[in-house]
Design a protein that fits this description.
By secondary structure, the protein is an alpha+beta fold. It contains eleven helices and eight strands. It has an eight-stranded antiparallel beta sheet with strand order 4-3-2-1-5-6-7-8, with helices on one face. A hairpin with a 5-residue loop joins β7 and β8. It is elongated and about 70 Å long. The C terminus is likely disordered.
Length: 358
C-alpha cells in the first residue's frame, strides 16, 4: 500500500497539471457550439435533398477551395467549411458564407480542440495525451483503493475547508472517490480512441482486428481530382441509398486515396457525423462503394459509441452537464495536487539532538 501511495503522489505531481488542462479544455469543448454567436446558428436543421444539394454545389465551388464541408446539425444551424492550413468558414444552410478565417488561431473553438486532442503537436501530441489518460485512469483506480482505508472520515466537499495541505489532501481524497466513475469513463474512452489496441481489453481480444477490417476504406485509386464535380449527383445518390439518414459531411481525397467521402448518420447512430459512408471517384464522381452502419459488427458499433460518450455528443444537456462536472473535477484535482506536491510538501522531521551523559 505504501508503494501504491508513493506512485499515486509522484505521478500526480508530475502529470497532474497536464490532466488538469485536459479536464478544463474538455469541459469547455462540451459546449463549443454555444460559442459561435453568428446569425442563423440557432436555425432548425434542414435536410431536404434539394436544399443540401444546392448548398453543397455553392459551397464546394467557393474560391477558398474547401477541403471538406460539414452540414448543420440538430444542435448547430450552420454549415462549416475547412480549407488548407487551418482556414475555414461558417455559412448558413442556403450556402451564404457568414464568417471566414485563415488560421485556426482566429477561432478559439478550433485551437482549443487542437490542444485537447493533439497538444498542438499532431500525432505526437495525441500519443502524449493517450499516455496521460492511461495515467489518469491509474489515478482513479488507485485513489479509490487508497481512500478505502480512510472511508470512515469521508466528508463531501467541493472545495477544501482550508488551503492547508492536510485539508487539501482530505478534499482531494473524498471528492476523488465521488467523481471516480465519471473520470474513469472520460479517461478510458479517451485512451481507447488514441490507442485502438486497448479495445481488446474491453471488447475482447479480436476487437482491434475486427474494427480495423470493418473501418477500412476502398483501395486507393490513382486518379486526379476533377476541376468540376457533380456534387448534386452525389447527394441524390446518397439519399437514394439511405433515405432515412442525415447527410453530414463531404470531404475531398486525403493523400492519394483518389476518393471523395460522404458521411451520413442513420437513426440510432450516436456519432455526430455517423459511420454510414459512401465513396465517390475523385475524377468522375461515380459511386465506388458504400458502407451501412447498421450492417457493421457489434464490436464496431460499440467502438463507435466511445467518441459520443467521451465528448458528450449523446444524452442532451443533462449528459453535457455531467461531463462538464467530470472535466472541472479533473481540473481542480490535478491543479491542487501539483500545488500541494511542489509548494506545500510537508517539512522533513529533524531528529532531536540527544545529550549523552559522561
Amino acid at each position: 500500500m505504501k508503494l501504491l501511495d508513493l506512485l499515486h503522489r509522484w505521478t500526480g505531481g508530475l502529470v497532474g497539471l497536464l490532466l488538469a488542462l485536459m479536464g478544463l479544455s474538455g469541459a469547455i469543448l462540451v459546449h463549443r457550439d454555444a460559442w459561435v454567436m453568428l446569425p442563423h446558428a440557432g436555425d432548425a436543421q434542414v435536410q431536404s435533398t434539394e436544399a443540401i444539394a444546392a448548398a453543397a454545389e455553392r459551397l464546394m465551388a467557393d474560391p477558398s477551395h474547401p477541403q471538406s464541408l460539414t452540414f448543420a446539425s440538430a444542435n448547430f444551424g450552420l454549415d462549416r467549411l475547412t480549407t488548407a492550413k487551418g482556414g475555414g468558414a461558417y455559412a448558413d444552410q442556403a450556402g451564404n458564407v457568414l464568417l471566414r478565417w485563415d488560421s485556426q488561431w482566429e477561432r478559439p473553438e478550433l485551437w482549443l480542440f487542437d490542444f485537447h486532442h493533439h497538444l498542438f503537436a499532431g500525432d505526437t501530441g495525441e500519443t502524449i495525451i493517450g499516455v496521460a489518460a492511461l495515467i489518469g485512469l491509474f489515478f482513479a483506480i488507485s485513489g479509490v483503493i487508497l481512500w478505502w482505508r480512510t472511508r470512515k472520515t469521508f466528508a463531501f466537499r467541493l472545495w477544501p475547508a482550508r488551503m492547508s495541505r492536510p485539508a487539501i489532501v482530505r478534499q482531494h481524497r473524498d471528492l476523488g472517490v465521488v467523481v471516480a466513475p465519471l473520470l474513469a469513463l472520460s479517461l478510458l474512452t479517451g485512451a481507447m480512441l488514441v490507442f485502438r489496441p486497448l479495445t481488446a481489453i474491453v471488447f475482447g481480444p479480436s476487437a482491434p482486428a475486427i474494427i480495423d477490417q470493418a473501418m477500412k476504406p476502398p483501395p486507393p485509386r490513382v486518379v486526379a481530382l476533377a476541376d468540376r464535380l457533380d456534387w448534386r449527383g452525389m447527394i441524390v445518390a446518397a439519399r437514394a441509398l439511405y433515405p432515412d439518414a442525415e447527410i453530414r459531411s463531404l470531404s475531398l481525397p486525403r493523400g492519394k486515396t483518389g476518393t471523395i467521402t460522404l458521411r451520413m448518420r442513420k437513426p440510432g447512430e450516436w456519432l455526430p457525423n455517423g459511420r454510414t459512408t459512401l465513396w465517390f471517384a475523385a475524377d468522375s464522381g461515380a459511386l465506388i462503394a458504400h458502407r451501412d452502419d447498421s450492417q457493421l459488427p457489434g464490436v464496431v458499433k460499440a467502438y463507435n459509441t466511445l467518441y459520443p460518450l467521451h465528448a458528450a455528443k449523446v444524452g442532451g444537456l443533462a449528459y453535457r452537464l455531467v461531463m462538464t462536472l467530470s472535466g472541472l473535477a479533473l481540473a481542480m484535482l490535478g491543479t491542487l495536487t501539483v500545488w500541494t506536491f511542489w509548494f506545500r510538501r510537508p517539512r522533513p522531521r529533524h531528529k532531536q539532538a540527544t545529550t549523552v551523559g559522561r
